[in-house]
Amino acid sequence: xxxxxxxxxxxxxxxxxxxxxxxxxxxxxxxxxxxxxxxxxxxxxxxxxxxxxxxxxxxxxxxxxxxxxxxxxxxxxxxxxxxxxxxxxxxxxxxxxxxxxxxxxxxxxxxxxxxxxxxxxxxxxxxxxxxxxxxxxxxxxxxxxxxxxxxxxxxxxxxxxxxxxxxxxxxxxxxxxxxxxxxxxxxxxxxxxxxxxxxxxxxxxxxxxxxxxxxxxxxxxxxxxxxxxxxxxxxxxxxxxxxxxxxxxxxxxxxxxxxxxxxxxxxxxxxxxxxxxxxxxxxxxxxxxxxxxxxxxxxxxxxxxxxxxxxxxxxxxxxxxxxxxxxxx
Length: 329
Prior knowledge:
Elements lengths: L54 E6 L6 E4 L4 H12 L6 E6 L13 E3 L3 E17 L6 E5 L5 E6 L16 E5 L2 E2 L5 H9 L5 E10 L26 E4 L7 E4 L3 H18 L4 H11 L5 H12 L6 H15 L4
Parallel strand pairs: 1-5
Antiparallel strand pairs: 1-2, 3-5, 4-11, 5-10, 6-7, 8-9, 8-10, 11-12
Helix pairs in contact: 3-4, 3-6
């Protein structure tokens, strides 16, 4: 995706299945130790008998016995392992959090899992339909996805249009917009669809909230705040999950990586209305050895071409990566 006159036409997306940008994305798996390398083409996962036997503990967020899972290489395989452990269908899982059963978007499972992290799976609960009057251009929603085709609400801005609709909550999966089923639609496309809804008219959302145990009911959360530290792992190493290629065991993120990913994630929200720490991590990884913005833009196009990032966003991301390298963030 080079800038200026060299810019290529954006690729058309043949289907809108979320690959979990990580891409991811969003994720879980077991692979060989060593630093990961971004490969836009992707690699097949290693045979199950060659994967390290990393065992993780898991529970259902609304309450359950503890299960043991292992042998997964991406978020979809992770969901399948959790579903198998508790005897239900994988599509019932909306998202997972690490080390807390609460709907805490700062603890959302992204592209890395600490080797000592405890995984809590949030499954489908109450379905609801709500009509919203769009009195302003911006609804005040930040959208992310679970890495398996479900877009959901990660943050609600104070004082926004949606903030006034108390039935809409952080963690709600957006199933339909004006009767159109959007399951399998990428989160940035969902954000665009909501942004393009006409002002001064009403629209309808069908939502699915995560199941909650009675004792877990509490006031609605606004979700993750951009200024918060999103570091989640407690182990000495992390499992880096990918939708393409094997997962890898890596060292904990460096200070440069943490600061750069945080800034890029903030830019994603500002420009596109999404938050996706694994997408941000992939962009930082792509850009860390590039010599100029055009080289960085072409690498983004090769790796994440479907996103069609605006030139201004690419320049700002390039600047953020440079600032992190120089210790200015």
